[in-house]
Every structure is written in C-alpha cells, then in structure tokens.
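Lab notebook, bench 4. We co-purified these components, and the gel suggests they stay together. Before we commit to crystallization screens, I want a quick structural picture of the whole thing.
Request: model the full complex, all chains together.
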Amino acid sequence: MRVLAASPRIDPGMLEPYAIVTARNVIASMWRDNDRRERNQHRVVDLRPPAAPDEELLASEEQSAVEQALARLSRRERETLLAHEVSGQDTRSLASQTGSTAGAVAAQLSRTRARLRVEYLLALEQAEPPSDRCRPVLLALSSGDRRRQREVDAASHVLRCELCARLCQPLMDRGHQRDDEVRVAINCDADIVAARQAARELAARLGFSRTDLTILATAVSEMTRNIVRFAGTGEVVIELIDGPRRGVQVVARDTGPGIPDVDKALTDGYSTYDGLGLGLPGARRLMDEFAVVSEPGRGTTVTMTKWCQEG
Ligand SMILES: [Zn+2]
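Here is the predicted assembly.
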C-alpha cells in the first residue's frame, strides 16, 4: 500500500528499489516495535503512567531540528517561506515585493518546502550524508519530481545508501499533501474567490498566459457559483497535469439535486440562473475538455481541463 500510495510521486524505474527499501523498513520497524513492547510490558499495570521521560527531550530535539533545517536555507528562501507560512502573506503580494510573478513565487515556495523536509530529517538523524549524491537524491524524492529522480538515478542510490533508504520513507509518507493539487470546499461566495485564486496560482506555475489564466479562473468561478446556488455544498479539486501534455484539470463536485437533462443544460441559450453568468455552455467553451456527469438526486461532477499553450 505504501508503494502504491507513493507511485504518483516517483519515477517508474524507482518503483522496485522503493518497494525493496520499504519492505526492509517495515520489517525493521516491526522488530523495533516488538522490542519496545517487551521492554514496556510492565507498564500495562500502571493506571496512570507518568509522562514518558523522553517526551520533553523529543520535543526539544524536534525544535532544534527545525531550527537547523531553517538555517540551511538561504536568507531569501527563509524569509519568503516564513512570510507565507507564518504571517500568511499570499504569493501575489510576495511577488510584487520582489518584482517576480505569483507563479514563480509559488514554485520557489514548493522547492523550499521540499528542501526544508530533507534538511529537517537530516537534522533529526544528526547525520551528515555519506556522499554528495544524497542531498540531490533526497531532494528529488521530496519534491516528487520524477524527471529529476531519473537524472540523479535515485533508484540505484537508495538501494546502496543506508541513510537515503531510511529517509525516503518519511519523505514519501506525506499523505495527500501534494504540491500540485489544491482542494477547496465550496459552501459560500467567499469559497468561489478562493477556488478561483487557487486555480490561477497553480496554473501560473505552468506558465499559462495572462489571458488563459483569466479564462481558467472564469470557468472555475462559473462552476463553483453553480455549486453555491444549486447544490449548497461541494468541492473543487484543481490539479496540475504534468505530462505528456501539461495543463490544469478542475473537478467540481456537488451532492445537490443534479441536472435532469445534461444535454439540454449544455445547449446555448439554456440559462441556469436568470441570464446571469455563462452557465455550463459558457464554461465548456472556455475550456479545452469538458465533461458533465449528473445523477438526479445525487449530484453533479464537472471535469474540465485547460491545456497549456507551449512554444
Ligand atoms: Zn544517500
């Protein structure tokens, strides 16, 4: 299951080595757990066990690992990351301060996070990597960049390097916290703005033109507005598609009353709400691919894609 869960983030050639080190790690941690259980068995009778003596130590170790990891970033990386994560400054205003674009700032942030994860784990292990290939390999795994994983031959490295074999697990076990996907729950008008903004920021990373960014944002507002008006609640998932063609896919889902006649709803002139907005046919025209699945009484899912015009 771990291998399956990690597969979208690793190069196909990396699957087998990853499965091998994963199996090794699972067995090692099973023995460690068994051992710990045996040593702690006597505590079962303690109805109120005291706080584990190492708890405070662990917390301070973690804090110092974060400190060390932050110290390894460049000053600019650190300041941007903290402004975004701690002070909540958005990418657009960060971009205007540095004369950059929101997309470039978002991409920079995602690289910084990937580096921070690597440095944090290295600091926790209190280990200097045994070879100068370790950091590039760990970074490629941390960022989920499959092309880079191939370039640095991450697959063969993790089989030979004990440290990287150990660290690749926590780097990949990041649940669904993906850098190339944003989910926005849709309940009210403010969520429409959030979804629009999220789509723009993600797509800007692929180098969409200004016009295309606006077109995409318009289609996203249109679909989310539909959710707010007709279904009440739903969600939008915006995802970058990396290849073979690059683009942005938007899935807008709701559990509302559904559309009785999808074909009719997709016809021009059929307005869903009093002539305001573009409705489904308008959104379909704005996007390159557009599909609607609706079940009356159960809800509607609109899947739409905008490809990036390259070259
Ligand atoms: Zn290594």
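Residues 38 and 242 are 48 Å apart (CA to CA). Worth comparing against the SEC data before the next meeting. The longest strand covers residues 299-307.
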